[in-house]
Amino acid sequence: MNKTTRRFASVAVGEKLPPLTIPLTAGLIIGGAIVSRDFTPVHHDKKAAQAVGLPDVFMNILTSNGLMGRYVTDWAGPECTLKAIDVKLGAPNLPGFIMTISGEVKSRDEAAGTVDIAVSGDNNVWGTHMSGSVRVALPKEA
């Protein structure tokens, strides 16, 4: 996590965020579902997931949404304000997979002091798990 906050003036369109690699465990997937109050069995019961054709429990959209937001706010620092997240799911994330999240600054809004980051989370087995954008407001002064 970045302990200093990025300033709006220091961020350039095209800037790439450092990748974040997340080993996916059953604990992360089940814990994310439970803490987000998603009690759909396929997210915490292996047999339920197998009944719908997957080999194990799989990550819910709320956990993916949280990881996408965390990725950008960790880069931006503690004084940023998360303004919006737009996430679209692709391939499922299962225990034992590894997801790598990457991002790039796509736009800046001088008047609002916001930056839009395009984000993708790709797992090492089936490819793109999530894609979308995150908007954060950054302080303008040092």
What does this structure look like?
The chain is built from three helices and five strands. By secondary structure, it is an alpha+beta fold. It has one domain: Roll (Thiol Ester Dehydrase, Chain A). Strands 1-3-4-5-2 form a five-stranded antiparallel sheet, covered by helices on one side. Strand 4 and strand 5 (127-137) form a beta hairpin. The protein is elongated and about 55 Å long. 27% of the residues are buried. The mean pLDDT is 96.
CATH class: Alpha Beta
Q: Any idea what the CATH architecture is?
A: Roll
What is the SS-derived class?
alpha+beta
In percent, how helical is the residue content?
10-25%
Count of individual helical segments: 3
Structurally, how many domains make up the residues? 1
Query: Count of DSSP E strands?
Result: 5
The rough form would be described as: elongated
For this structure, the CATH topology is Thiol Ester Dehydrase, Chain A
In CATH, the homologous superfamily goes by the name Hotdog Thioesterase
Look at the structure and give the mean pLDDT. Answer: 96
Sheet bearing the most strands, described? 5 strands, antiparallel
Q: Which strand order spans the largest sheet, edge to edge or round the barrel?
A: 1-3-4-5-2
What ranges have pLDDT less than 50 throughout 5 or more consecutive residues? none
Order of helices and strands: EHHHEEEE
Distance between the termini: 19 Å
Radius of gyration: 16 Å
What fraction of the residues are assigned to beta strands by DSSP? 35-45%
